[in-house]
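[recover] target loaded
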């Protein structure tokens, strides 16, 4: 029996130490190399827009040309396209959501340059293929004797554009090392490209991006595999950006920026400091109350609460949860709910001790009688958090996520950690003093 308790205590201690390492401010890292398997994990606390600063944008969709029944799907598709663009550029934990019937809210933590953010979201590359003009206009030299060719006169549009693009990828020329962009068309685009190249053998086909000529290769034979190559004076960074923009797709509806706001890092730092201060003050008040009123069990509960806080922070970092002000509020609230479970258990213990039960029996009966109340109250709270998370906005969802995680961890610390500590101390001479339990009169026979 005692060996099992010591084993549980050892596991709890190891869990607490691991959580402490992961929760340590500034980030932590774990690297494991076992046989041929390399595992590396960086633990970092992600902060939301309201904590670390960034850019807040509101877009309005132009739905006048969209049928009434298809407007909701069009806005959701626009949201998905914007989300793909933002994710492709490595923005950490962005928030992209539809608000109302025709607005999209975009929050980009860490992006301080509003112009960069606007370019990132709103700029859609227009890719098109043009063929040589069979009837070019009369070309005459200018006053200096120079012949200036207009690309719009040399090439004329075809029906093949970026809409038929399935994917774009980056490859490097084996001889020069220059970056090239490979285009792969869908079934419809493959047929169009085959027809265009078949019609223009030994002629040039111009590849244009946003109206600018990128390259104009000569077609040697019809290309039927739906694969085209863009060569140009790209840097590697420019080529990667173009590939990303091409793969993100076009917006299904035109959007217009109607509101922009830059949230400064100073405001974020101030919010973090105030939230941390509020959490520490709340924890100190709770700890003082538990120790003064419940004595030894209260002290053990404070240790369990400390372990609870460490595990919670470790889970936030491990799962990559973005912490916002609302999320911090949910975390602080969950601390109070964790204390509530301990209070229920300790009150049942005191009742059993007043009835003359021995200490070990009082501990077991206290946990047994309190379990149903603890379970039902926490489950009802979890149901509420699921509803908030499903129907709420991103702010409410952050609150619900941290609160639900806190509730689950608090059930573990209250039922397992505190119970293990109390069981270990049962039978020690330290426990013969009745005032350690807040019970006025308790004979040593009951210990």
């Amino acid at each position: 029996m005692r060996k099992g308790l010591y084993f549980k205590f050892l596991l709890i201690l190891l869990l607490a130490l691991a959580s402490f390492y992961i929760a340590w401010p500034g980030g932590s890292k774990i690297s494991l190399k076992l046989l041929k398997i390399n595992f590396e994990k960086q633990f970092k606390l992600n902060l939301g827009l309201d904590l670390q600063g960034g850019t807040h944008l509101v877009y309005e969709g132009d739905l006048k040309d969209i049928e009434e029944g298809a407007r909701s799907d069009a806005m959701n598709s626009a949201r998905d396209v914007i989300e793909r663009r933002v994710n492709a550029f490595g923005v950490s934990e962005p928030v992209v959501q539809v608000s109302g019937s025709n607005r999209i809210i975009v929050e980009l933590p860490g992006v301080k340059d509003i112009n960069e953010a606007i370019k990132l979201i709103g700029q859609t590359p227009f890719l098109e293929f043009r063929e040589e003009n069979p009837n070019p206009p009369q070309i005459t030299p200018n006053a200096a004797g120079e012949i200036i060719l207009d690309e719009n006169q040399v090439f004329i549009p075809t029906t093949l554009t970026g809409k038929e693009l399935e994917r774009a990828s980056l490859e490097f020329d084996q001889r020069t090392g220059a970056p090239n962009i490979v285009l792969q068309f869908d079934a419809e685009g493959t047929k169009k490209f085959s027809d265009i190249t078949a019609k223009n053998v030994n002629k040039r086909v111009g590849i244009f991006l946003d109206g600018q000529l990128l390259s104009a290769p000569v077609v040697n034979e019809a290309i039927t595999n739906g694969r085209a190559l863009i060569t140009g004076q790209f840097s590697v960074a420019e080529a990667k950006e173009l590939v990303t923009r091409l793969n993100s797709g076009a917006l299904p509806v035109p959007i217009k920026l109607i509101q922009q706001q830059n949230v400064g890092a100073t405001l974020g730092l101030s919010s973090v400091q105030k939230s941390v201060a509020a959490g520490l003050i709340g924890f100190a008040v709770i700890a003082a109350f538990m120790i003064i009123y419940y004595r030894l069990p209260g002290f053990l509960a404070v240790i369990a609460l400390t372990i609870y806080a460490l595990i919670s922070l470790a889970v936030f970092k491990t799962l990559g949860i973005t912490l916002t002000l609302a999320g911090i509020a949910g975390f602080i609230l969950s601390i109070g709910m964790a204390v509530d479970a301990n209070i229920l258990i300790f009150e049942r213990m005191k009742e059993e001790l007043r009835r003359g039960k021995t200490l070990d029996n009082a501990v077991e009966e206290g946990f047994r009688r309190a379990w149903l109340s603890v379970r039902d109250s926490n489950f009802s709270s979890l149901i509420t958090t699921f509803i908030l998370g499903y129907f709420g906005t991103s702010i409410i969802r952050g609150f619900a996520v941290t609160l639900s995680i806190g509730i689950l961890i608090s059930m573990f610390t209250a039922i397992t950690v505190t119970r293990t500590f109390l069981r270990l101390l049962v039978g020690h001479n330290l426990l013969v003093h009745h005032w350690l339990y807040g019970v006025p009169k308790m004979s040593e026979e009951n210990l």
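[recover] notes: Residues 55 and 252 are 24 Å apart (CA to CA).
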